[in-house]
From TrEMBL:
It comes from Microbacterium rhizosphaerae. InterPro entries: AP-4-A_phosphorylase, FHIT, HIT-like, HIT-like_sf. Coiled coil: none annotated. Keywords: Nucleotide-binding. It holds the Pfam family HIT. This is HIT domain-containing protein. A motif (Histidine triad motif) lies at residues 116-120. PROSITE patterns: HIT_2.
């Protein structure tokens, strides 16, 4: 499997976000470079650089805040609106059958970037399980991140 986008994390070492936050940095980049599909006033949506499935989105507040109960009402409201829109867009673009939606709070709960609140929106299909994750501990993703980002961003703009 060819996954060149993961090289930046390999080269960064065991604590790639000890001094920088990818969710604070992404909004300062172009949408293409930041993998951003939609920008709101208080929050935005971007593709996960380490997707569980094609189209795996993250919804984040712009403000660097770690926990859900530290977010403002405006931030959580916009995160909810962006999550609903993400579901509609992913249904249209990928024809998924369902979603896993969740927030991991803290490293103990599985948060990869525990210092910046982010909600996962993972599209799921009835037929998305195969032998790779079970035997090879590998997930096959049928599209490159840039292609997925473009398709989702285009559908978002027209939704």
């Amino acid at each position: 499997m060819w996954t060149p986008h993961r090289m930046v994390y390999i080269q960064a070492g065991p604590e790639p976000h000890a001094h920088d936050c990818p969710f604070c940095a992404a909004p300062g980049r172009s949408d293409e470079d930041g993998l951003i599909v939609a920008r709101g006033v208080h929050a935005y949506a971007l593709l996960n650089l380490f997707p569980y499935n094609s189209g795996h989105l993250l919804v984040c507040p712009y403000r660097h805040v770690a926990m859900y109960d530290q977010a403002t009402a405006e931030e959580t409201e916009e995160m909810a609106v962006l999550t609903q829109q993400a579901m509609r867009v992913l249904r249209e673009v990928s024809r998924c059958d369902g979603f896993n939606i969740g927030i991991n709070q803290g490293a103990v709960a599985g948060a990869g970037v525990e210092q910046h609140l982010h909600q996962h929106v993972v599209p799921r299909w009835n037929s998305d399980a195969n032998f790779f994750p079970i035997i090879a501990r590998t997930k096959a993703l049928p599209q490159l991140l840039g292609e997925v980002r473009q398709a989702v961003a285009d559908a978002w703009a027209s939704a």
